[in-house]
């Protein structure tokens, strides 16, 4: 952020080549952006998808966030469907996804021992053992491969190695985006734009209102040559001793959820969703470099401890840290509706719900900025309070948001209208036709407030 710098220079004015003209441009190819691009293309739009890195997937692949959760409601029904289901099926077909069959989704110690180290447990449930639920452990490279397949099959014009830097705004509309590439700056012009950067880069540049959020950051990593059978056998045979060692391990890494290691579809390779670190700004290069140094130091300390002390980890080695620093929250849109913590925890249902995860619903209005007619957002930067975002930003619901945004832009283009004038019931109808659950039908435990319905 510029406030921390005191010297400035004036940049040169330049002519920027227009490299693509398209119905829709999607910036950011993480879970939300990928889904938005595929959904819009399948609905007949020409789509350009822009991504700064060399791979697709955002936090799901580059960030090595390797469990899909928030997929079921309290009644154990799968609520994140559509592209999410298609994605999981394709990864499973490539041996890149593991999840419990429906008959294993029970609350007992036998299933706990079978599935907890895959991360397929209800983390929100107090007491032990927690219920086993439908969550999916996956391989990051399978995610990248499936993403590329989906994008190519849908006919999306993919532009990797293109770092979005500036929105072109004319009369309340974003008419294009400018990206930095090795060849210099390039412009992509479009009728509709979708911000799926996770950090609201595009909408912020276009002048949308936002707040600056912050949450823990994590340098996720994987270890290889772990004898997971031995580690689990030790844990279940010696629960008290294991608990003690585990507490020490978590002290060494300095910030981790209850289960600091989880199994992955690749034998002997475990995923470590830690260390969690506070006080780093996920937008600032200085902050992210500092987090990289600190995270890598902490993970090597944990590896040394685990090798020395935890049965099954004697021969463990560092397979590597994620390519991307794990950023959970930065800018959050202040859009037509701001989802609150109370909305999430009370399971408030909205008449214009276009997406759901677990038991929370996202209204269409929470994807729309104020004052810009043709911009919609999808992903972890949607219009939500900081606290509410912490429990409503998992990968599957972000994908459903993206799928809904793709439908919304196609409807707006077809009716030549502003995005805020698109009838949310038409989005819901098309989502259903695509096999996705837009949350239009509330679960029996939802809080229904007619006053909020648009
Ligand atoms: C450490 C960690 C652990 C998590 N654990 C879980 C979990 O267990 N299960 C779960 O379901 N979710 C988990 N989450 C949450 C989840 O990973 C994210 O909320 C989700 O990936 C958000 O998806 P997104 O598409 O909105 O954003 P991202 O995944 O952040 O994707 C944004 C994409 O936009 C691209 N981009 C950004 N800026 C630009 C730019 N200027 N130009 C071009 N491209 C750009 C990025 O490179 C990236 O590809 C976790 C997150 C973190 C960080």
* Structural class by helix and strand composition: alpha+beta
Overall radius of gyration: 22 Å
Helix content: 25-40%
Number of DSSP E strands: 23
Mean pLDDT: 96
Estimated share of beta-strand residues: 15-25%
Largest sheet: 7 strands, mixed
Indicate the low-confidence ranges by residue numbers: none
**Which small-molecule species are bound to the chains here?**
flavin-adenine dinucleotide
Q: What is the tally of helical segments? A: 12
Query: Shape from CA axes?
Result: globular
Distance N to C terminus: 36 Å
Please give a structural write-up.
The chain has about 450 residues and is an alpha+beta fold. It contains twelve helices and 23 strands. It has helices at about 30-40, 85-95, 110-115, 140-155, 200-205, 230-235, 240-255, 285-310, 340-345, 385-390, 395-415, 425-435, and strands at about 20-25, 45-50, 65-70, 95-100, 135-140, 155-160, 165-170, 175-180, 185-195, 210, 215-220, 220-225, 260-265, 270, 275, 315-320, 325, 330-335, 350, 355, 360-365, 375, 445-450. Strands 1, 2, 6, 7, 8, 9 and 22 form a seven-stranded mixed sheet that branches. Strand 7 (about 165-170) and strand 8 (about 175-180) form a beta hairpin. Helix 7 (about 240-255) runs antiparallel to helix 8 (about 285-310). The radius of gyration is 22 Å and the shape is globular. About 50% of the residues are buried. The site of flavin-adenine dinucleotide has 38 residues, from helix 1, strand 3, strand 7, strand 17 and helix 11. Flavin-adenine dinucleotide (FAD) binds near residues 31, 51, 327 and 380.
